[in-house]
Every structure is written in C-alpha cells, then in structure tokens.
C-alpha cells in the first residue's frame, strides 16, 4: 500500500477481461434474451481524486474502499457498481480495511499513525486510536478471533486491539516484532492475514519480497517460499490454505499454497489483468477478487479518475503436503 520504484511486470497468469454488464445487458436485449441478473460489474468507478488504497467486502455484496487522500470511505454496491461516500475522512489516510460481522469497519491510518473503527451503517466513528506518536505508517489490518492487528511499515511493531466479547478497547497494545524480520530502508511490514490454522499471523515485507509468520507475541519466522519472493508485496487475502498476495507495481496477484501453520508455501501461479493500474489490496466475493487501482505512477489531482476492478479468482494448483 505504498509507492515504490517501478519494476517489470511478470505475467505468468491469464485473466480475461470481461465486458461491462451494461453492455452485456444491451447485447442480450438486442438478441432477444433477458439480461443475466447475476452478472456484476467488473469495473467500479470511484470519485475523481479519491486515491483508493484499501478494500473490504461485506456483510452483503457491498465493498468499502478507503481514500489515501483524506481518509474518506466509499461504499459501492457490487450488483450495480453505484455508490457514495458514507464516512468523511479526518484528513489522514484510510489504508487497510476490514469489516466484521457486527457491522464495523477497522481502518489503518497510514502516516497519521492512527486507527479508527467506523459503523458501516451510519458512517459514524465508533472509536479512534493513537497508535504512534512519531513517524509511522500504519498500513494494513486483519481480524482474528478476539483481536484486530495492524502493521506499521516504518516501525517494527504490531498494534493489537483486543476485542473481548467484541467490545472495543480503550487503547491498543504495542507488540514489538522480534526474530527473522529485520526492518530496512523503504516500506517494511505491509499486508497481514491469519495463518491457515489460525494460530499466528502472516505479513509480507514489501521492500524485500519476503513473507513472515508471526506469533501473537511478535516473534517472526521467515516463511520458506522455496526460492520465490513477492517483490512489491502489498495486500494479502487468505482463503483456506490459498494465499493471494498483491504485487502492486508488478500489476500482479501471486497465488500461493501454504501449509497449515503458515511456515512454508509455494507460488503456484501469478495472474494479471490489462485493467490493473498498481492495485494495492484485495478482497473476494464468491468466485471473484476485487482490487482498487491506486495508480501510483499517475500524478494525483482532484480530477484524476480512479476505479476498482474484479477478476475471476485464480484457482490454485494442487501441491502435495510433503512439498510444503
């Protein structure tokens, strides 16, 4: 979820661009067919100048997209592609996003060094947290049973919001990262997700392309990727034991198969799309992935157009457990 040096795009996957549903509907009607009600738009327009970063989906077929410009939250109906801003930002960014079953949206505040929790029905801020007092880049967030976890790309820590009984805490807990992960120049810990067995966390380090398993006490262990790496690694999405990792400047989604503990994994394919323009994060509905285009290579203005796109979810190849 950040600009870096441009790197070459590695296209090993194949994703077909789909026609807009409005055009598909017109074609069906011209041929005398009824429109296909289950076809969702594959490109969702966002407000000009919005500068999207994070995306979260649900409850229901709705997406929430955060603005890097001012922290506003945009709500889009995935069935129609239409939407509106539901929560005006505080002036600091809205980067990583996650929703929970209680109708709350957890928001990472980037260089603002903060986090907040929003009621997705009303847009009201339920709680705000000052996570860092000095330089910081609170980049992404994930939810586990009993806690919300935030990465900081500048400081080697995780921020934990204990959610005992689902209640929001008065303050966050700062957990230092120790072990294999060493912070260097550039953006460090970025995307975060639980391990397949739910006992730990996985984070990607953007500047090295390395993946790490993190215990809930902050001990890090490098994930064995069998010679592969994830340069420009950004948002992560776990589905069973399949991990989708966005490589933003590479305009690529890497598909990995992990072991249950999240200590070993293999890149089984990579997917791209002609509509990708530096996608940053990823969320899923059914058989499709949704990614906002941050357009880091395009000078941002108040009139710059932005969007989010969806692609078919790449199926991971089968990898034998003994190979992980």
What spatial order of strands do you see in the largest sheet? 14-18-17-16-15
Biggest sheet character: 5 strands, mixed
User: Which CATH class is shown?
Assistant: Mainly Beta
Strand content: 35-45%
Distance between the termini: 28 Å
CATH architecture: 7 Propeller
Q: In percent, how helical is the residue content? A: under 10%
List SSEs in N-to-C order.
HEEEEEEEEEEEEEEEEEEEEEEEEE
The overall pLDDT average reads 89
- CATH fold-level assignment: Methylamine Dehydrogenase, Chain H
Biased composition (Polar residues): 296-307
Keywords: Signal
Biased composition (Basic and acidic residues): 315-324
Organism: Actinomadura rudentiformis
How is this structure best described in words?
By secondary structure, this protein is mainly β. It has a single domain, classed as Methylamine Dehydrogenase, Chain H. It contains one helix and 25 strands. The strands form six sheets. A five-stranded mixed sheet has the order 14-18-17-16-15, with no helix packed on it. It has a four-stranded antiparallel sheet with strand order 1-25-24-23, with no helix packed on it. A four-stranded antiparallel sheet has the order 2-3-4-5, with no helix packed on it. A hairpin with a 5-residue loop joins strand 4 (73-77) and strand 5.
What features would you highlight for this structure?
324 residues, Methylamine Dehydrogenase, Chain H, four-stranded antiparallel sheet, 25 strands, Superoxide dismutase, signal, WD40/YVTN_repeat-like_dom_sf
């Amino acid at each position: 979820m950040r600009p870096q040096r441009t790197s070459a795009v590695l296209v090993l996957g194949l994703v077909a661009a789909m026609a807009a549903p409005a055009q598909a509907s017109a074609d069906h009607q011209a041929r005398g067919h009824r429109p296909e009600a289950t076809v969702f738009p594959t490109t969702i327009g966002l407000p000009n100048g919005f500068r999207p970063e994070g995306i979260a989906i649900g409850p229901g077929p709705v997406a929430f997209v955060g603005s890097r410009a001012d922290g506003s939250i945009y709500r889009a109906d995935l069935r129609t592609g239409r939407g509106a801003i539901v929560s005006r930002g505080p002036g600091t960014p809205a980067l990583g996003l996650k929703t929970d079953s209680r109708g709350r949206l957890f928001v990472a505040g980037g260089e603002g060094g903060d986090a907040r929790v929003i009621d997705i029905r009303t847009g009201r801020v339920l709680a705000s947290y000052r996570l860092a007092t000095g330089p910081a880049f609170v980049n992404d967030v994930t939810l586990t049973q009993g806690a919300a976890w935030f990465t900081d790309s500048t400081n080697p820590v995780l921020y934990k919001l204990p959610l005992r009984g689902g209640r929001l805490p008065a303050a966050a807990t700062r957990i230092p990262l120790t072990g294999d992960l060493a912070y260097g120049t550039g953006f460090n810990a970025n995307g975060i997700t639980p391990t397949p067995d739910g006992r730990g966390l996985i984070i990607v380090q953007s500047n090295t392309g390395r993946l790490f398993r993190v215990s809930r006490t902050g001990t890090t262990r490098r994930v064995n990727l069998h010679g592969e790496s994830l340069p420009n690694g950004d948002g992560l999405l776990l589905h069973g034991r399949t991990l989708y990792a966005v490589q933003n400047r590479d305009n690529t989604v890497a598909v990995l198969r992990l072991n249950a503990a999240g200590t070993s994994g293999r890149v089984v394919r990579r997917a791209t799309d002609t509509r990708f323009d530096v996608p940053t994060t990823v969320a899923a509905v059914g058989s499709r992935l949704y990614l906002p285009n941050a357009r880091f290579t395009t000078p941002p203005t108040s009139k710059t157009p932005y969007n989010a796109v969806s692609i078919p979810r790449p199926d991971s190849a089968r990898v034998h457990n003994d190979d992980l």
